[in-house]
Target: Ferredoxin
Amino acid sequence: MRVSIDSDLCIGSGQCALTAPAVFDSDDDGFGLVRPGSEDGRGDPMVKEAVRACPVQAITFAEE
Ligand code: SF4
Model:
């Protein structure tokens, strides 16, 4: 599995970093990013919650 954020869609709501902080962070401008080394989702069940929580469906979590 691979988690990614479409930066063209992200509006910087910060929900992903709040929901699954082990996998997501916010950059200096508040936009979401996947923490380096966490692209596989780290087996964190909250990643799927973060996908649902994103208000603009910018997060993809899918088979590579
Ligand atoms: S929840 Fe979605 S819109 Fe908000 S920071 Fe994360 S990727 Fe961006």
About this structure: The mean pLDDT is 97. The beta strands are 2-5, 24-26, 32-34, 59-62. Residues 5, 10-16, 31-32, 54-56, 58-59 surround iron/sulfur cluster (CB under 6 Å). The first helix runs from residue 15 to 19.
